[in-house]
Design brief:
The protein has 271 residues and is of the alpha/beta class. The chain has helices spanning 16-25, 51-63, 86-106, 124-145, 162-170, 192-199, 228-237, 254-269, and strands at residues 2-6, 30-36, 45-46, 67-72, 110-113, 148-152, 177-182, 203-208, 210-212, 217-219, 243-246. The strands form two sheets. Strands 1, 2, 3, 4, 5, 6, 7, 8 and 11 form a nine-stranded parallel sheet that branches.
């Protein structure tokens, strides 16, 4: 498995050159990029970025020997694939389409999909159907470009069981719809190794963060109650050998935090 980190840990005005140089020196193989709805200072991509801008980012990463693990967007929380409003669903589907095209231009093969939320005023089955329709609409382009639509388990009251997510993924009948497994996000209710067992080869990417079940809070990788030997052991048992991507924050000096997270990930991988 290879170490990666989401670059949202850096301040928004940090140049890509500085980010990728820091990651290389800290021992990471790859970076996960964030796409924003509006243009921001570095580190950001945005919906209006053209192919030349995207390829320049990829070239900068390659200069430092940093691979690009994928692209994510917080826009899915504002424009939900599950929404009843057709215009909101259309904006969500367009966000997904933009991410697919950005991933292709960047030379990566992964887009993180947050499918929306289950709303108490909405039918649960209807929410799943709405998200399915949006993903299916973008699927032909994703298949053509070889971009995986990796559905993440998040705190959205959807897919509270790995069996449910497994069956939802399988319902698309596509090699490019898989799971982006966040091993911290289900710890309040279940065990990550059980999700690995059920999802198996459907796991395309893995996010890591710490979680403390004693007080139900996210934390540093070794500050909580995560059973890393069981989690990493399950990933190896079921054939996962891809990236593990830290999704964490920095308190104080960012570059020091990035180095510390890298060292923590080394310990996890040695489990």
């Amino acid at each position: 498995m290879k170490k990666a980190i989401n670059i949202g840990i850096f301040a928004e005005d940090t140049p890509y050159e500085q980010i990728f140089a820091c990651l290389k020196s800290a021992g990471y193989a790859a970076a996960e990029l964030n796409l924003f709805e509006e243009k921001k200072p570095f580190p950001s991509l945005w919906n209006g970025a053209d192919e030349a801008e995207l390829k320049a980012v990829a070239a900068c990463a390659a200069k430092y020997g940093i691979e690009l693990v994928g692209v994510v967007s917080a826009a899915f929380w504002n424009h939900k694939l599950t929404a009843e409003d057709a215009q909101e669903r259309a904006r969500a589907a367009e966000t997904l389409r933009t991410l697919v095209r950005a991933a292709a231009a960047l030379g990566t093969d992964s887009v993180l999909v947050v499918p929306g939320v289950a709303d108490g005023s909405q039918s649960y089955l209807r929410a799943l159907e709405n998200a399915h329709g949006c993903i299916a609409a973008v699927l032909p382009e994703a298949e053509e470009k070889g971009i995986c639509l990796a559905i993440e388990n998040v705190w959205n009251k959807l897919f509270c069981s790995p069996v449910e997510l497994r069956d939802y993924i399988d319902s698309f009948g596509s090699r490019v719809v898989k799971s982006y497994l966040d091993v911290g996000n289900m710890c309040k209710w279940m065990y990550p190794q059980h999700w690995v067992e059920v999802l198996g080869s459907r796991i395309h990417r893995v996010h890591v963060k710490g979680y403390n079940t004693d007080n139900n809070t996210f934390c540093g990788l070794h500050e909580g109650t995560m059973d890393w030997p069981a989690i990493i052991g399950a990933l190896r048992t079921y054939g996962y050998d891809g990236y593990i991507t830290a999704e964490l924050w920095a308190d104080g000096d960012v570059e020091e935090a990035v180095r510390g997270i890298s060292a923590d990930m080394d310990k996890i991988l040695a489990s």
